[in-house]
Fold each of these.
Amino acid sequence: MSESILEIRGLNKHFGPTYANRNIDFTLGRGEVHGLLGENGSGKSTLLSQIAGLYRCDSGEMSVNGEKYDPHSPLDANARGISMVMQELGVIGSLPAGVNVFLGRTGQFSKGGIVDLGEMNRAAAAVFEKWELPMPRLGRLTEGMSIEERKMIELARALSIDPEILLLDEVTQSLSLNNRNRLYELIAKFRDMGRSVIVITHDIEEMVQITDVITVLRDGEVVGRVNTKDTDPDKLRMMMVGRNISGDYYRDDNVPECDGETVLEVRGLSVPGELEDVSFDVHAGEILGFCGLSDAGIHSVGKAVFGLTGAAGTVHFLPTDAYIKSAPQALANHMGYVPKDRDNEALMIHANIRDNSVLPSVNELKGPLGLLAPGKVSSLADGIVKRFSVKTTGIRQPMDALSGGNKQKVNLGRWLAKDLRLLILDCPTRGVDVGVKAAIYSLMKEAKKTGIAVILISDELTEVLGMADRLLVMKDGRVTREIRRDEDFTEQAVIGVMI
Amino acid sequence: MPANGETRRMKNWVFYIIFAAVIAAVLVIFHFISGRQFLDWSNVKGIISRSAYPCFIAWGFCFLFACGYTDMSIGGVVVLGSFASCILGNWFGLPGVIIGGLVVGLLLIFINFLIFTYSGIPSWIAGISLAMIYEALAFLLKISKGTKALISTSLAKEYRILGQLPWCLILLLIGFVIVYFIYNRTTVGLNIRALGGNKDVAEKLGINTKKTLLFVGLIAGILVGVSCVLQQSYAGQTTVKTGLTSINMIFQPLAIYLLAQIIRERINIVVCVPICAFILYSIFNLLTMLGVPSGTLQEAFLGAFIVIFGIIGSRKVKGVVK
């Protein structure tokens, strides 16, 4: 076994009456990539947050390089060579990318009280170059950047302290295939340099691919630690949820169902700098997949079809013969849209489950005078919570108190509670555990059976290959190839077109 | 495909040139509408002098809003600061004018921020309560036997030079340079903007939010203090009313801030403030020349102008470098 760099003994953390971590023992070896696996709410992020100095431990001990470690803040952790990229932290939109890399430490570029922005940007550029990360425009405000660009800035921020231990909480879920590969290379480089990484990801196959050791948590406790080479995804799933879960939650057929009634006819969809002349049809009961690398424009398709970007071209919704130009019009025509950036674009994060649940259904629920009956609203929200097994204290609980998976259940559930004809899903399983993932795929299959047309946009190739009837591969804002489920529907074939 | 740096710079310069040309054209139109009076130097001097005091408050708003707070008591603070400026000015001359306004402005705004930071009361609620207190205090000073005479006396004319050119312009230029660097190029400025952008992220990145908020109080306090000095120097006297009417005093600086906010996509907000102040007071000046009654009707024009400007400015521009 490699020499340990981080030792944790008997760590406890509780929030009110709820234990987030209980008697955690954990060892991280030098030059080790260590995975933390568990369902949403199992305490993985809390454990990383304690290591990163975001939360104080209630009891227990930590040591780094054999010396006592009790961080009071992330800056304390940074001083000991530990930095973290958090699942939902984000960047400050009103500040440029370069400043975001060194935020909280801008004083090091200050001369006579004035921050040398040029020097700061050069230092930020050096971090991006050193770790071979795609460099954004460092002088540009981050508010207009994609979730992927913002995640890369967060990664650069964590790397800018040249850490000995890097903590990554659900980072890959925000990345497309090319940047995901870059991150894997970075992790490998880190290991080669004798540094250590702790990774949280809900993608078990990915975890098996990139880690050396995996610790599994359940309900805040460590239930097992295994060497990755001695295990497989199915064993890990069982350890994680405490019961047998089959890995084949994707479709097992290879019969494309794309001959039903045409629901949507998209022609010449163009958004300057994002999409160029994109045309396609979607049929009832079909799952149409979109995939591509980070700048391919797949995420712009969902927004444009739902009338959010004022794109050129036509989006013809055939059942009502409507040409969709705006989101309210899309909503009125039985279309639904689940965006990738859950916290910023989909949910009112500080409002409660009840208010979030009712939002897409206000028109259906309002009475003759335009008033909403509180009983109906609560009943709808209760129904969503029950149907999708949302772990919550009640419908009045704020969204920001829920775990990522439970937020997504509400996000998706509120659309499926409606009478939809077309549902656009952009990375629907981002940041959710295997159980929730299976539930989401099952809901998609159910929607397909009832004749709902689904547009599935995803950064995870296995997901679109597993679920779609037809796949549109995009590159540089254009559709470059269409592949049907009964054709060459393999990762190799798709990657060949994407690159 | 994203534009390269050279193209972006070129686009920005094209925008600056067009923007300057449009403003120049509008001023020339104003000149002809007003019967060739608007661009008379004496008239332009008046507009600049009138713009100075609200400019400093609008810069104060840049810091307040950047950190996600608001302060409705600024009007009340300006009234009290102007009193102090007037009384001390008449006693000690120009140093009294400066010290009186600065000290009262700084002290009261800093106290406000101590309350916002440590009480946990939303700043707009606390600000309204404080505005009522400051108005009542000003009213008491105005009617009390001991202070009535002092406050009713106008500031002596020889001590009002800071409200006139070139001094108000010099103060504006100095203020601009200092505010620009603090807002854009200091750690505290960046931390203030981070706080308003996302307080949770800022805290998690080790920014001391309480200390940063107190810095906002300090900076905004100095800016409001300077505006007290300029207000008293320009007007010579300050009117006192109760019933939250002091909030009227911040309406025009607020309008300047809103206008600046609209074009900040293209031009740094600190630079936008004096430009917008000049545009705003040019409009008021023109309306007065055209015989439009000041007050309600002029404010209706102002409201319409902000809406039109907002519509033009809200056309999103991507790929802006700041």
Amino acid sequence: MLAMRELSVGFAGGLALRRATLSVARGERLGVAGESGSGKTMLGLACLGMLPEVAVVTGSVRFDGGELVGAAERDLRRLRGQRIAMVFQEPLSALNPLRRVGELIAEPLRLHRGLSRAAALDRACALLSEVGLPDPASRLRQYPHEMSGGQRQRVTIALALACDPDLLIADEPTTALDVQVAAHILALLRALSESRRMALILISHDLRAIAAVTDRLAVLYGGDIIEEGPTADVLAAPRHPYTQGLIAARPTLSARRDRNAPLPTIPGTVPALAHLPPGCRFAGRCPVELPVCRSTRPAGNPACHRGGP
Amino acid sequence: MILLILRRLLGFALTLLAVSAAVFFVMNVLPGDPAIVILGIEATEDARAALRAQLGLNDPAIWRYLAWLGGAVQGDFGVSYSFKVPVAELIAERLPMTLALAGLATVMTVALALALGVYAASHHGRAGDWAVMAFSQLGIAVPAFWLSMLLVILFAVTLRWLPPGGFPGWDDPLAALRALIMPATALALVQTAVLARVTRSAMLEVMRQTYVRTATATGLGPARVMWRHALPNALVPIVTIIGMQVANLVTGTIVIENVFYLPGLGRLVFQAISNRDLIVVQAMVTLFAAIVVSANFIVDLAYLWIDPRLRPRS
């Protein structure tokens, strides 16, 4: 349904996304994992045609056969909210603070579906109950600041679902939330994707969140998709040294772990956009680096000159 | 909420009391003898002394202030020394014109400034933005009285579209409006320049917020996103500046009404000061203070109307 081919997003400082190729089928749940600065938010925005104006975009993103890169704003607007919806990172600031929750959800319904005010509010009420907010009818009259973070995130999801999109992109939907609340939101996203046969792209740095929700996983590093495959397989047997490091760096609750041993980390940090190495972007931090890694960009899956284990 | 408004009203009354007292005592130490104003310099010292006694000018200042205040709360501001009519009557005659002038200027300012500011913000860094900023810089730099003269030369003298000054009265509303257009424009342009800048920067700040992105991501058009989602969130600084501009507007009318020979409050206060008609000046300054304080009061209420987060929890 969504097919991204060789998509590159460039800024004055360098490429935020380098020849990314990905696809999502109807009803499929794809996880995109990566640290901050890996280009995952750009990937999400590209699917909505909402990349910043200064970005230089090459390659192709096709949705249902239609090209999104370079499409007219008017055509993109017909897709946004109606076919492709997005939930943004910060639930606390993602809702207009001056509008009642009911009006916010009713607005796209009235605009895109031509519903009357009353019908749109009815629908908003049903959506709020679908995302698991108790007492939805009285919620409609509340302002966002009168709700907790988790409740607001449920409202942003209800808003995204308003016009029954075929694809929902959730960009770090649980970052600002408590662990318990986050788990509920993730379960909700998964259940909604199943009940509505709605494709889902979950963008997160949290491998556990991705493991809980998605079927397939793409790992992003420095703007490159370095490994892709079924979520369970990639997490059980990662083949790219970066993915391996990422999984090893996950703190566990296991009592067997020596409490005094330092937590495993990947040395160094993600290089800044302007200082990305020309070859493999993990070169310099990679424990199994070869001379060729510095100069030539590795291809394939995993994108590694060692070709996996 | 009611309590909040009552508290504000009390503050309003106290502010007016303080202003009127300050004005009264400042007026008192100013040089100039009302008796000379009324009787002329030819009058004998005996006649002046008799008049001072009759006007109560020999009483202690505090006593005279209280007497004035007692009348003022009943709408009696005394009788003008130079016009020889009740001050309340003078004000009532001129108030409608000044209100119309200030109202027209405010409407023009707000409409133009919001349009320019939103336009500039949505064209940030491009030619349209630069043009608005250049206009605004010019507007801030140009004094209103000089702009008025340019307007008169262009629209009254050269093109002969509008009257150069004077006011025909309210019998013919269209003629009245024609007489007010140029002065209102002169008043509005400087204010527009400032307000457009404030609108632009407030909008730029708001446009970075996630909820603006959310609105775009739900498929709303750019005009709807800007006017319905971004602008309301930018209104608090904008309304603050509008409130502050009311004070400029009051002083602006004094200059502009004199340039255009408009019989309004601004011209009255100018004449009253020239004539040492202290009792009129006293009432006028108190009235201007009341206008400015009411504007601030309205701004405070507007904040509550704009932003539900500022409303007290019930």
